[in-house]
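As a warm-up, study this chain.
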Amino acid sequence: MRILIADDHPFTLMGTKSFVESYGYRVEDTCSNGISALNLIKLHMPDIAILDINMPGLDGLDIAKSIQESKLKTKIILLTMHKEMTIYKKAKEYGIYGYILKEHAQTELEKCLQEVKKGHQYISTFLKDDLITDTPNDNNELAYLTLSERKIIELIIQQKTTKQIAELLFLSEKTVEGHRSKIIDKLGLPKEKNALLIWAMQNSKK
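Now compare it with the structure written out below.
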């Protein structure tokens, strides 16, 4: 069974690789961003891809959605710190086979791989207790945004320019501007210069 692992944290990436290999599986590829992960999946068609959700370029959910739309046979396992209900629901919608919390990976990853290898879905046994309901409301506008849009908000708070955001996330400036426009529409902000920056700075203090 051939496996790809993608995570933008080097220590997590190497640790996951060591775990997987210690179980007797073959890790064919590793990478640290979503664009490389998707390209490698399309090129080598691994049996399983173990993905972090938060990665530059494309996040794990973006990749899962693309795999589903392309009808590729690679089975996706998400290894993540995210416990939000909206993210978990998206993962299920995109047909992921495994969803494991990083804090429990050492105890659950081997079992997950065994189940996914059989074609079964494996959801962390700890998730039921840890899952966070994050239904959008007046005090939680970020729940309306995708992970990619949230990453852009984080960089805007750091006062990064569109060009800098594009470079950090491996995107084109046009794509970043498109995300900015969608965020402004979703948040109902005025289409004025710096309106998004002002909103981001104000809400970062909450």
